[in-house]
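G., the chain you wanted modeled:
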Amino acid sequence: MDMNRAGPDAEAFFRRIETIWALEPDGGAIEFAGAAFSWGELRATVMALDALLTEAGVGQAAAVGVLLRNRPGMLAALLAMLLSGRCIVSLSPFQPEAELQVELQNLKLDAIIGESQDWTAGTARTALEAGIVGLCFPDGRLDPVRRVACARQHAGRRDETLTGIALEILTSGTTGKPKRIRIGRGTIADAIQDGMKGEGKSRAPSIKTTPTVMFAPLMHVSGMFGALLSLYEGRPIVLLEKFSVEQWVAAIRRHKVRFSSLPPTPMRMVLEAGVPREALSSLLAVRAGTAPLPPETQRQFEATYGIPVLVQYGATEWMGGLAGWTLEDHRKYIATKLGSVGRARGDVVLRVVDPERGQEVPAGQTGVLEVLPRQRLGADAQWTRTSDLASIDDDGFLYIHGRVDDTIIRGGFKVDTATVAAVLMQHPAVKEASVVGLPDDRLGQVPVAAVELREGVIAPTEEELRTHAQRLLSPYQVPVRFKLVAALPRTVSMKVSRPGVLSLFN
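Predicted structure as tokens:
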């Protein structure tokens, strides 16, 4: 099966949502900023979007840009595009207006969907000049959806290769400029079905009583996958624009949520806020992904709240998790496997190979991770190499040791920047550290470190940090410069941004 096309089974799966929202039309589907929206209202909005696009001549396989704020209308837009066979082109609503207008000029979109705040006069003018149909939601609401002052009819099909493509999305941009990749309808359907099989979830359509509390950005795969999984499972969503300890805890308490996502940075925020144990007593587990979770943070969270942390590992290209912990594995192995990201999930096969020879390495040895998702890519699929350094032990547990591009060469010596950052974080004043390489005329590259300090501590001097590093690292691993910052630069998904860190040293 071509990864960019969906077979009959996948198309039948996309129809599942039509069964879901007919079960309890008046039941709550989305909660946002104190407002509630029913399954019936969600359906009506999806139908209205489809009708407006069809009327404007924007049919199947059209490229529809969506300014993906964490808002109810954007959830409706995602469903409308998936159900109609149009391609969602993920657009950042947080970029400068001038950069958005450049994207509208270059992406060859047939239509664009945003909120009132997104439709400035300049953006509408650019869309008109590019022949792009514009649709607008009222800020934070589902209706009424209306046309805006741009093209009334799209300028004709732009890209025949979009047939079977569900999504064109930006990578996270943690290591460089975000790139656009395409994800097929079959890949999304398989990813969601894999997610619905996890933790014994029923596949029969039904409306669930406990909602998902969602704050991951819809413009990235973690948020989009989580939202679609919840809706296709028939689970309501408490939608947060971004993570807030207060709002997240309030939603967990109010709805007695049993499972929730809590990536590393929000997890540390919960710990630092001193959230009382009883406030999270309904949680059976939290899932942690999107960025490496330091074992110390996991150990502290579990000790503080008695809640298992199920670490996940995934990739944008496969629209979901490739490996992860289950509750059963956590009970059996967490004492001896802390630091692992779990075992391969579903029909995914993982292996670790020598980066130069391409041969599989023995269990426990570090190399480059390769993936064979047979179910999603077809029986004739090839191994796909990731950019992650990893090892797999005899029990099949996967450990991520950084990225291939985390390694810099300093005068012929390899420096693993993730290892250096981990050592710096052992300093009692350091909350988080990021180490990157700078060009050097004599040595090729040299490591430098940006350091975010814990609140209320006395800031160490650069010399103190250097002395700390020298005690635990080889001389060639010690950063040549340190920069103390109030907060490390991050992407909207709360990962540390490598380009942002590099800019601190310019």
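The longest helix spans residues 39-55.

Shout if anything looks off.
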